[in-house]
Give the backbone structure.
Amino acid sequence: MDWYSTVFEMIDMRSFSNLWFWIALAVMWSTVNHWVLGVPWDMILRARRDDGEARHDMQDLVRINVNRILYISDETGVLLTGFVFFLLTGLALLGFVYDREFAQALFLMGLPLSIVGAVVTRTARIIRRDSLQGDPLIKRLRRHRMITQIIGVISIFVTAMWGMLQNFTSSALGG
């Protein structure tokens, strides 16, 4: 028996029973919720408390990121959307038709992230359209973060339920 066989016997390498998958999922949602349109959440909280330099810096960073997001969306939006849905369709087929657990895991991470991407673009368009500044801007960013958190909670719940189903239906001997 070689070293690789021993390791793979000792450690379950399936996605939903692997601790690293759940750590990656938690880090992914933690990061997505910390960066609101590319602005760190602590910077938004400081700007809400302070009308001075912190608010000015936050507004500048929002303006820069809104311009960047909308430039990418306007220039490559259709191509990027097509590519993302091509990948998601491929993962869905591999995962749920051909029963590949790794593809299921990637799909359950990628689909909610694509929804968050659409919400980010929508929020950026609203900020630019309404020329939001000050308290209305902070309110919009808080609302955006709340929507992202709701998507994250639903995503983690669905992923956990699907993962438990996969773990319950697979045998301990790899069947």
Summary: The chain has a mean pLDDT of 91. The first strand starts at residue 35 and ends at 36. The first helix runs from residue 3 to 10. Helices lie at 3-10, 19-34, 41-49, 53-97, 101-130, 134-169.
